[in-house]
Amino acid sequence: MEYYQARTMLLLIFIFPALVECKVRLYNFRVVLTNTTKLCSTKSIPTINGKFPGPTIYAREGDNVNIRLANQIQYNVTVHWHGVRQLRTGWADGPAYITQCPILPGQSYLYNFTLTGQRGTLLWHAHISWLRATIHGAIVIFPKKGVPYPFPKPDKEKIIILSEWWKADVEAVINQATMTGLPPNISDAHTVNGQTGAVPGCISPGFTLHVESGKTYLLRIINAALNDELFFKIAGHNITVVEVDATYTKPFSTDTVFIGPGQTTNALLTADKSIGKYLIAVSPFMDTVVAVDNVTAIAFLRYKGTLAFSPPVLTTTPAINATPATSTFMDKLRSLNSKKYPANVPLTVDHDLYFTIGVGIDPCATCTNGSKAVADINNVSFIMPTTALLQAHYYNISGVFTDDFPAKPPIAFNYTGNNTAMNLKTTNGTKAYRLAFNSAVQVVLQGTTIIAPESHPFHLHGFNFFVVGKGLGNFDPDNDPKKFNLADPVERNTVSVPTAGWIAIRFKADNPGVWFLHCHLEVHTTWGLKMAFVVDNGKGPNESILPPPSDLPTC
């Protein structure tokens, strides 16, 4: 009887996600291989329940979410619920070898977490190797029942997931790169809700966003791409941004959204133009010499009543190196900072950290050129452990990691100057930085020009942070903090560090556990551009991590 009641509740949630008030949301995720055709060729891809993108998780603020993940493919799997705070439930966060050991083929694991103090759009994705290329989907968190949005109520809501597509097997792509020590091949196309649209050499209808004149739509835009920051633009239409990374913002109008991997943007679209078909363009951003997939994904916004075969209204995409467009968009983002949704920015800090980020070259006897590309924070390229860090922390297992991650770069230099003569070799290790519970933390993420400068979208697990400052060149610790925005800075979980520039973030370490900080360009994560914070327990059970679940995978 309980089984059928659960199935009935699941059915109601899927059909009426915004109407059903339920304390527990139940989902069954099966990781399976699915034959999929794109770019006029077919391959088998890992998916959840045979869908690309995967199923959407619907819940309300305060709900408990249970997802049973059954691994039915040949690869080890984990899934990360990107942006979910996971208060005291780090065992459900998902990054392989950080908070859990992988789910082996034929095994399953129950992800169990509560959505505390969060509402908006997030995403979920695989967090091992490059499986998130096709294992990803949306998380939609509605406000508590009876609580309105702090913006005009839309008539309808639409999810738009942006991603990348490789003709080749993606695991083969990264395995070859790891073996040779060379950068991996770039993707062949971008997708909108799993569809590329027409690309040179292959006709495809692409995704269509259907609208009715006079109605307003809440677009939940998600960048699930592996390696590309993207521009999103609809011909002839401005949209009003009202939220990023599941935190409300002061509304502002724009014709172009800049969105990095792992970021989400909610925006209101009013269908107030002439009936017809309008081009939706998704194009990449890259303002340096690094290779990027420059294929624009094509989709269409189509008004009800549009005649068949109507020619579309076209638009121009931002230049691939349109740095001003990215800065303009990021500078407009401000926290709503209302009485109900305040911006609780730490005004003083207990830990003042300065992290230089970049790439390097290390020796590799088995690689093609006798060397391999690596990436590092404060010259430490992170080595993945073979036991999960959270397990080692919780059970006090020695030899898995050290807590001596450097708070500053080992050597000061002109980080954004001409560094062609720099030693490109890094150190490596499995190092974490320890924080006392509830301490206030400031991290300045400083880009460097070693080999090549690049924009780095950085993601912090387990927390939201406030982006209190940003700039080009080297951070000036004497003068730049005087210009920090401590009143209404945008609050989010992923932020792009500008090319040859810096970002300053602040957060309160109010979540005990082990929390990953890494570049969300998967190529850089693979190369070691990552570290972890260990947040110790506070006082009493409410400030301590919960015990591990009985079905936690073992290494």
From TrEMBL:
Task: List where in the cell it is found.
Answer: Secreted, Extracellular space, Apoplast
Task: Name the PROSITE patterns for this protein.
Answer: MULTICOPPER_OXIDASE1 (PS00079), MULTICOPPER_OXIDASE2 (PS00080)
Cleavable signal peptide: 1-22
Asked if the Swiss-Prot or TrEMBL record annotates the protein with the keyword Oxidoreductase, the reply is yes
The record's catalysed reaction(s) read: 4 hydroquinone + O2 = 4 benzosemiquinone + 2 H2O
Q: Where is the Plastocyanin-like domain?
A: 34-145, 157-305, 404-538
Which GO terms of the molecular function aspect are on file? copper ion binding; hydroquinone:oxygen oxidoreductase activity
Is Cytoplasm given among the entry's keywords?
A: no
**Cofactor(s) of this protein:** Cu cation
Name of the top EC class for this enzyme: oxidoreductase
Q: Give the primary localization class.
A: secreted
Q: Which GO terms describe its cellular component?
A: apoplast
- What's its EC? 1.10.3.2
Give the record's keywords alphabetically.
Answer: Apoplast, Copper, Glycoprotein, Lignin degradation, Metal-binding, Oxidoreductase, Repeat, Secreted, Signal
Q: Which GO terms describe its biological process?
A: lignin catabolic process
Q: Which family does it belong to?
A: Belongs to the multicopper oxidase family.
Question: By what name is this protein known?
Answer: laccase
